[in-house]
Each structure stands twice: as C-alpha cells, then as structure tokens.
Amino acid sequence: VKVRFAGRLCDGFVLSIRDHTEHDRVQPINRVVSTEPVLTAPVAGLVRAVADHWAGTFNDVVRLAVPPRHATTEKATPRQRSLPSADDLTGLDAGPFEEVVGGAGFLTALEQGHSPRAAWQPVPAAVPAGDWAAGFARAAAATWASGRGSLCIVPDATDLERLTEACTAVLGKDAVTTLSADLGPSARYRSFLAVVRGQVPVVLGTRAAAFAPVANLGLVALWDDGDDLLSEPRAPYPQARDVLALRASREQTAVLFASHARTAEVADLVRRDWLRDLTLPRERFRRLAPAVRIAADDDRALDRDPAARAARLPREVFSVMRAGLAQGPVLVQVPRAGYLASLVCQTCREPVRCPQCNGPTQAVHQRVSCTWAGHPVRGWQCPECGDSRWRAPVVGAIRTAEELGKAFPNTAIRRSSGDRVLAEVSDEPALVVATPGAEPATPGGYAAAVLMDTVLLLQRPELRTGEEALRRWWNATGLVRSGVDGGTVIAVGPGESATLQAFLRMDPVGTAQREWEDRRTAQLPPAAKMVAVEGPEAAVGDVVRQLLAELKDCPDVLALGPGPIEAPVHSEEPWVRTSLTVPAAAGATLTRQVRATLANRSAHKREGTVRVRVDPREI
C-alpha cells in the first residue's frame, strides 16, 4: 500500500486488520498497490527477529525479504503445476545418507512429519557419499512426503544450478522453483509469487531467499555456511545461517546444515545439542576421501629435490600432475586471479601503489595498471628508496596457466577465474587452473588436484584465516576422485603450518571443535557476542561511551579499540572501529542496548555516520 507519513508518500505492508485502534488519530491508506499478501505473518515475525538480533530496523530487513514488485508479472496467469504425491516419494533409498550414521533415521523422521536438526559432513570427494546436492534433494523429497515444504539456500549461482538439477531429478520441475537476483526482475517476482501463493513446495535460492514465504515450511537447509557470499553486505548484515536458525526455532522446522569444512558457529550449535552430527564412520570417511599430502614434507622428498621448499612448483608436484594427466583432468587451485597479482619495489619491498587513488597495482605483460580503477601506472618510483624497478611476489591464475602451458606443451590448459568462470570441463586429460570458488566440476571427478601458494591464504590477518583456508582446500578436494579410485591432492606450502596439518588429518568436525575452544579462550564469536562500531572517531567514541554506561552492570564487558579502518569512498574523514564483547549469555542485552543507542542518536540527529556490525565476519 501507499500511505502518507510525515508529509511523504511511503510504501507499506498490511500485516493485520482491526476494527479499533489505540491511537487518537489515523491516516487513511492512500492507495492499495497490490492485493497479493507478499509479507506473510511468519515472515514479518522473522524480519522483526532478524532486526532485533543484528541491531537493525524492520525497514532494513524487509527490503531483503520482499523483492521489488513487477506489475505485469503479477497480472499474468500462473502456470499450472503437477506435484508429486506422497506415495511417489515415500520409501526412496537414502542416497548420500546410506552409510551415514543416523542418516536413514533423519530421512525417516522427515517423512513422518518430525523436525530433526542435523549438521551433515559429506565426504570431500567426487563420490555419492559426497554429493551434497543429491542429499538435499533426498531430504526435500522426504519432507514433501509428509506434506511440508522445503527451503534450501546455497552461496552462488553455480551451486544453485547443481542443486536445481538434483532436486528436479527427484521431485520433478513443477515442484521446484529458484529465487535469486540473477534471475532478473520479472522471473524473480514470478518465482516469488509461486511461493507466496503456495503453488510450489521446494524453494531453492541464494542468501535473500532465506526469507521466502514457503507454505507449511518443514525443512531449512544450507550448503557451505562459511562462504562469505552468505553474509548480506547491506545493513544490518545478517548471515544466512543465523537467519535460517532463527527461522527454524520460530517455525519449528527441521534443519540440515552441510559443508566440507565446518565452521565454529556450526560446531557451537552441535556443542549445545541444537544440531546433531551426521557423519560417516571415521575409517570409511578417510578411505573415500582422496589421498592428501604436502609437497616436500619429509626428508626423502627433500633428498630427491633439495630446492623443493623454495620452489613454487617442486618436482614432486610435477610428478603428481603427470600421473594425474594419465588418468584424466588435473585441478590446479591458485589463490589469486590475474597475471602478476601484486607488485612491490625490487629493492625495499614497499608495495607499488597507484599514484591517483593509492590502490594496489598489477602487471600484465610488463604493463603496470591500477587494480581498482584499471588505468595505467607510468613512471612509478618508490617513495621509500627511489628505485623504479618492481617485482611480483604473487603470481596469479593467468600467469600460472601460461607457465604450465610451457611445462606441459602437449596438454590442454583450461582457466576458470574472475569474469571467466567455467561451470564444467570434460573428463579428457587437461590442466584446469582455477581460483577458489571458480573450480569447474568434471564428470567422475579430477584425477588429482594441486593447491598452490597456500601460504598466501595462511598469511591473511583475519579471525577466520585458518577456517577459510580449510574451506577452500576441502571444497577443491571435494571435486577429486576417491582415494580408492586413485584420487590425489597435494598442497604446496609450509608443512609445519597447523592449518595444513589439520587439512592432512581430514577431520573437519574435530578441527571445528578446536577452533571453537580457541575462540572461547580469546572471548571471540561464537563463544562470545561481539558488536563492532565503525565510523568517524568522535561519533564512535560517543556511541561506545553511551553503551559502556548502560552496560555497567553487565559482567565481563571487553572493549577493543579504537583502531583505524578503511573509510567509505564518500567519507571525507578517517574511520575507526571499536569492538565490544560480552559473554554469549549477555548477547541479547548488548544488541538490545545497541539498538536503543542508535535510535536515540537518530532521534536527536547526532552528527557522524555510525555503522554497527553484530558478530562481524572480519575483526
């Protein structure tokens, strides 16, 4: 509807109709824009809960939940759908859950109308037990057998395409629809209307689809919750995993969270018995996974190749590539896209910066350009030592593909990165060079995989450095054939690294538990509740002082900062960040007080923009 508020015509939603009001004076509705109930009562309640949880506002969140209206699509005649019956779906085999401890029981509980909650650990290998998409399809079918709908969320379009194919194969195309910004306004709104009208029971989508108004919702499922694409970049910055957890608690639905690399957040939910583990027996898990090793990690390998530790591609890696190419395609994962992905001074190692915007630089065929703006950088001279020579400590995917083409002159080289992402490659022998997240699938899996420049992922100064590195490596491993079928993964990096050793152990569950313990010791999320306040120093200081005054009775409040951060492009003054941490039990008190403080600032029109992030991904 359109309503007049404070002299302006605003958009609104009708949530309920009553025959009396407690207000002295009400305004008439200016215009009914649509009679479609696009904001249902359960979703409106979820929107409020998400706003409360992330210290945001209802308006901030509702724009994520309801896509823009498309009038022509709304007036069109909806297509007729033929849905499978419960008899068609009851008694299907357990598929990827066949050997999982408790897997068959999980599916049976769904078929019987119960709401089990599980954290599933698929094998990181190209085997049926690692086919997460088939597992989601089987769970959705079991849920529909009890007359309930399912909502399955994935990070990106590639995962969405794979999941759609799997669900359509089991349930038929009429029972499945997708919700994604990539669909375009008309197609997206058409799918949304099919959901809100209760015409389709299985909804698949990316992060914003977590709010989809699925009728009689029985299951929420999420793949790879650690992917940063599942974190909303707009305020109040909700994460799809936590939105689905809130929704499951409110609507009493079943839950299925699955990933190759478990996050500390999912480990926390398992620790609190909110989720239960679904995993293969340990020995079977290790047997099905590819054989994993680190290059030059023992004395024998160093005796054969004394320069291995200093080489970007040790001799052992070439041996793995040759052996793999005799059996099929070989995946080469490179952390960075581009050619020469970052530049430093030849003499003093000072980063080469763009003289116009101070951004990072890159080089292609000896031509230096700004990574951010793309314009050429000519006549650079180091501001520290005056040298005009530069070198590239980081080699990107394009240069890597070029070098491998010279080393393997009779082998096809395929590249997938940046704006050129391949969805799939054939099972013919080839070297496939890809950046993390852009690795194409291949029928039957890769014969081998090489994880290059792992030290670049390990050097990132972030809370989730180890967790994110393992996620990228195990996701790549998930595209490789089983160890039983000769699949091999070799990582190039420091063998003494605790993260690489965790990768070798192939124990995602135990690794996540240890990560949670480390977070508890350091008083970091999810073992504690954290709020990061960002903005100009004066504004941040004002907010933090108010919060500390209001939280004086809250035990163990810890303030970190202020520390400098990168300011938004539109800001004319530097920004800082101060983080406040409290025990998890006091988390609701902290976020409630943050909302009240921000509302007070807004009402009094205080100067300075302040941005608040609850449990920020990066600290």
Automatic annotation (TrEMBL):
A Pfam family annotated for this UniProt entry: PriA_3primeBD
GO biological process, one term: double-strand break repair
Molecular function in Gene Ontology: 3'-5' DNA helicase activity; ATP binding; DNA binding
Keyword Phosphoprotein among UniProt keywords: no
Keywords: ATP-binding, DNA-binding, Nucleotide-binding
Superkingdom per UniProt: Bacteria
Primosomal protein N' 3' DNA-binding domain segment(s): 1-67
PANTHER family: PRIMOSOMAL PROTEIN N
Name listed for the protein in its UniProt record: Primosome assembly protein PriA
Biological source species: Candidatus Avipropionibacterium avicola
Top-level taxonomy: Bacteria, Bacillati, Actinomycetota, Actinomycetes, Propionibacteriales
